[in-house]
Each structure stands twice: as structure tokens, then as C-alpha cells.
Amino acid sequence: MLSFVKYFREQAAVIRERDPAIKTNKEVLLYPSFWAVYRYRKAHKLYEKGKYYRARKISQKTARQTGIEIHPGAVIGDGFFIDHGNGVVIGETTIIGNNVTLYQCVTLGGTGKEQGKRHPTLEDNVMVGVGAKIIGSFTVGENSKIGANSVVLSEVPPNSTVVGVPGRVVKMNDVRIPRADMDQIHLPDPVWNDITELKKENAKMKEMIESLAAMIQK
Fold first, then answer.
1. Which residue, 54, 88, 87, 84, is CA-closest to 72?
2. Do the bridges between strand 88-90 and strand 68-70 make them parallel or antiparallel, or are there none, so unpaired?
């Protein structure tokens, strides 16, 4: 039996750690993710016992009420938090480790072509930014960060950052990204870096051509 009081205390600690907007523990009761995850825990126990209809009934009712759809078959560790939450979808064979954070409109989905394990695995301390989509049965390594609106379609090594569509892995010198770091905006973008370098080289070439033209005119 899932203890509501124990769950409340745990979630209050998690939310206060990661959301600077919260001022009192009582506010936890106003968070859609608080109820979505609590009801997921109950539905998951029913799912494990083979009571699939009852489990899905709870999850679908919760999705209508909170905007967060978590399939009861998903396996989710401790310290899980969904900030804001509306539009989040978590598929049946998803596995989520400890201390993972998702923002609104995140999808942990399948390709629709696979059988068995068809949804992603997120290891400990992963953060997934607003609107990101992680599609397929691969692993996002621990301490990794998925940038806002990224579309991730392949394996992500531990201690990495992913940006773009499709998602590109950016190794951050193998330095761990702690879960307390909730910055989902200031992420490296290798494509933009390349464009910046090309612009610099183009400016240098332009200067050289102008110099040569001036010499010829003389």
C-alpha cells in the first residue's frame, strides 16, 4: 500500500529542491505532477498484478485531469519530478532511473515498429527540457541533459548534452552534470559554432579579396 504521507514528504523535498517558485510544502498539492506520479504508483502496482484494465482506467483518468499521461507499465525510480507537466507522455516500456526531471510537453515514445522494449531508458539524474522528444528503445546515460525541443533518436552516452533536431550529442569534457543544475537554455550548439567559424573565415577572405583588388588597381 502506497503511503500518502510518505509520498507527500518525499515529493515536497524533491519539488523544493528543483523548483524555485515553491514557497511552502502545502503548495505541492497544487502541482499536477504530484497527483500524476502518485496515481501512476498506484496504477503500476495494479499493472504488476495483471489488473490491466483497472490500471489503465486510473492512468487515463489522470491524463484527462492533469495533462500528464504515464502508462502504468512504465518503471520509474525515486525522486522523479515533472515541472509544469502538461502534454507529457511516457510510454509503456519506458524505464526511468532515480532523480530524473522532465519539463512540459516531453514525449518518451516508441517508433511504432518495434516489439517488446520499444520506449527509451533514462538513467539516473537525467534532465529533459521543454518539448523534447525521445523516441525509441535506447538509453540516455546518467547525468545527461536533453535540450528544449530536441528530438533524440539514438543512444546518448553518460554525462552528455543533446541539442537540435535530430538531436546531436555534445560531450562536456566528461564532467558530470548534477541534477541541481536545472538550466535548460544555455546549452552548447555545435552547428551554430561551425556557422560562426565559417562567418569569421568568410570575413577574412572578403578582406583579402578587397586588399588584392586595391593592389591591382594601383
1. 54
2. parallel
Domain that holds residue 201: 189-218
Same domain, 178 and 206: no
CB 41 within 8 A of CB 7: yes
Structurally, the chain folds into a number of domains equal to 2
pLDDT at residue 52, rounded to an integer? 96
**pLDDT tens column, 49-72:** 999 999 999 999 999 999 999 999
Instruction: Say yes or no: 177 and 194 in one domain.
Output: no
CB-side neighbour CA atoms (13 Å) of 121? 10
Minimal CA–CA distance to 176: which of 141, 135, 205?
A: 141
Do 77 and 114 lie in one domain? The reply is yes
Least confident stretch, 38-42, 114-118, 130-134? 114-118
Q: Is 77 exposed, middle or buried (0-12, 13-18, 19+ CB in 10 A)?
A: middle
Contact assessment for residue 162 and residue 146, using Cβ atoms and an 8 Å cutoff: yes
